[in-house]
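A.,

Following up on our hallway conversation. Structure tokens first:
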């Protein structure tokens, strides 16, 4: 549906965005560029989301792991232009071991997210548990929240979390979100004193392992050899409540079987359970209730890829600007 562009307005609409992942920040970029006053809230302690990077101290220095998204592709022309800017800024590079289309953040996967977040007013460790609305506008309820009111709210979190925030306000959108189920993923990270005796740097679909990669083979990485081992969605779902130690050993055995080598005792290990790792795919780019000034964006609307998160957030931002107009500077 086409939207007639509204005239420029002189006072900045205030927008709260719940979620400082790629979708939320892409939406913030569009709104901020149009002069809207944007505040972003995220329950995490810092930038990353599914593009997070974890560090483990070892005797040979700090090991680095991209323990969420392993790489991303750029097929949409607008996202290709964004990735080209990231490359120029030293925030992204091609990772040839994963294929000709594979890109990674540099020096870590969260580098583009960190760069985008720095341009906005982001409140970390701010867990939004519910929304409230009164004559002054929208208010966010939860840990780290103030009594500030906003003209509009954007929800940019995984579908399951979006559903609970939406339910009191738009039952149809909440039902849509609840029905778009994410896949879980157990992820084990290991740091090694010596490189493994193999030329293989990525591995797919071997026993419990859905994907494994030598993280230290990515461009811009430093520190000892590090591997990320991610279980398949089916295995993760079947063992979602399993003991962490047992999961670690199962995934190490899966890596050894896939590479057909013995894995030496690691310098350090860490295992993380992603409950909402791989998003569903609704088949829509965004959701918006104009009467309530309530919007939703995220990869789960389009598909389970980094690019889809950026596209959804960017499209929602453009949609809101088209409806409400850019803010006039008052000059001329």
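Then the amino acids I'd put at each of the 332 positions:
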């Amino acid at each position: 549906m086409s939207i007639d562009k509204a005239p420029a307005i002189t006072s900045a609409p205030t927008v709260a965005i719940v979620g400082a992942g790629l979708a939320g920040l892409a939406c913030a970029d569009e709104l901020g560029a149009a002069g809207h006053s944007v505040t972003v809230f995220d329950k995490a302690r810092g930038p990353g989301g599914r593009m997070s990077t974890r560090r483990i101290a070892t005797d040979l220095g700090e090991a680095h792991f991209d323990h969420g998204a392993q790489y991303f592709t750029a097929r949409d022309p607008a996202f290709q232009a964004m990735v080209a800017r990231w490359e120029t800024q030293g925030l992204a590079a091609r990772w040839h071991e994963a294929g000709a289309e594979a890109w990674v953040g540099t020096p870590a996967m969260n580098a583009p997210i960190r760069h985008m977040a720095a341009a906005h007013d982001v409140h970390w460790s701010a867990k939004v548990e519910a929304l409230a609305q009164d004559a002054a506008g929208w208010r966010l309820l939860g840990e780290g929240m103030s009594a500030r009111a906003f003209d509009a709210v954007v929800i940019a979190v995984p579908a399951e979390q979006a559903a609970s925030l939406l339910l009191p306000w738009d039952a149809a959108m909440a039902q849509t979100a609840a029905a778009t189920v994410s896949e879980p993923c157990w992820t084990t990270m290991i740091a090694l004193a010596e490189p493994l005796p193999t030329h293989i740097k990525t591995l797919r679909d071997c026993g419990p392992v859905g994907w494994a990669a030598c993280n230290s083979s990515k461009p811009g990485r430093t520190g000892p050899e590090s591997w990320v081992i991610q279980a398949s969605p089916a295995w993760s779902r079947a063992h979602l409540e399993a003991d962490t130690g047992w999961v670690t050993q199962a995934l190490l055995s899966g890596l050894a079987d896939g590479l057909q080598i013995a894995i030496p005792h690691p310098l350090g290990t860490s295992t993380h359970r992603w409950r909402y790792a791989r998003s569903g795919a609704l088949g829509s780019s965004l959701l918006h209730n104009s009467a309530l000034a309530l919007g939703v964006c995220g990869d789960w609307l389009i598909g389970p890829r980094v690019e889809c998160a950026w596209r959804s957030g960017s499209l929602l931002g453009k949609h809101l600007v088209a409806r409400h107009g850019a803010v006039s500077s008052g000059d001329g």
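The chain has two domains: 14-48+113-180+280-324, 53-70+183-278. Curious whether your intuition agrees with the design.

B.
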